[in-house]
Amino acid sequence: MQPTIQPFFDPATWTVTYVVYQEERPECAIIDSVLDYDPKAGRTSTASADKVIAFVREHELQVEWILETHAHADHLSAAPYLRSQVGGKIAIGQHIRSVQGVFKKLFNLEPEFRLDGSQFDHLFEENEEFAIGGLTGKALHVPGHTPADMAYQIGMQSSSATRCSCPTSARPAATFPVAMRTSCTAPSASCWTCRAIPASSCVTTIRPRAVGPHGKRPYMASVKATFTCTMA
Predict the structure, then answer these.
(1) What distance in Å separates the CA atoms of residue 24 and residue 177, rounded to the nearest whole number?
(2) 197 contact partners, CB below 8 Å, separation of at least 6
(3) Which DSSP helix (H) or strand (E) runs through 51?
(4) 92 with 104, same domain?
(5) Would you say the C-alpha torsion 168, 7, 59, 86 has a positive or negative sign?
(6) Are 207 and 184 in the same domain?
């Protein structure tokens, strides 16, 4: 069974909170929660977080992790509130320490504010693996607009599955064909990307984007990959 992902879109900040779990198992993780904030009134509310809590309780889920991908500038985090209501460990990448050092000076935080990340229950190291019930997660360091940005790769636990090398992106050459099919290279194992057996039947169809953003000019910096599997 594959991971199930339930999104909760927040129109005020144009961000998405995710609940990740596995059907017929109670364990779950909440990613990038939102604490509502009214800048005019200077007040916070928990309406968005309460929707997540209602979903967790309706599906009788057990929160194991409350994950943050980074220190957000576009919204406040509801992680402490969620932990108080449904449990779970709040986690983020270990590089949050350097971000805290910048924020302390920039926002003139109190002298007692700690710069060791101890406000979180767990700090992930790069490529650290963790479990969400029967799912395996891996914390990936993807520094972007902050040096603490993290991505979480979540899949099924398996001792026999081999990750295939089906490409997800490539930089096409000037003579790149309209469509190129690349066979999966995971021998005698389930294709990790397509999750089908046999892996030899998995192919990746790659098509370059015909136009760039806004349709103004050709854009060949990335391609679109479509995964298909057939049983032999």
Answers:
(1) 43
(2) 190, 191, 231
(3) helix 47-58
(4) yes
(5) positive
(6) yes
* 112 and 18 inside one domain: yes
- Give the domain range for residue 207: 159-232
141 shares its domain with 182:
no
Residues 146 and 175 in one domain: no
Report how far residue 135's alpha carbon sits from residue 5's, in angstroms, rounded to the nearest whole number.
12
Q: What pTM, to 2 d.p., does this model score?
A: 0.65
Give pLDDT, residue 157. Answer: 60
Name the more confident of 130 and 13.
130
H and E: helices and strands count for the chain? 3, 14
- In the prediction, which pLDDT does 192 show? 38
What's the total number of domains in the chain?
2
Match 């910048």 to its residue by tokens. 102
- Strand ranges (E), the chain: 3-10, 15-22, 27-31, 36-38, 43-45, 62-67, 89-93, 122-124, 129-132, 135-141, 150-156, 180-183, 203-208, 223-228
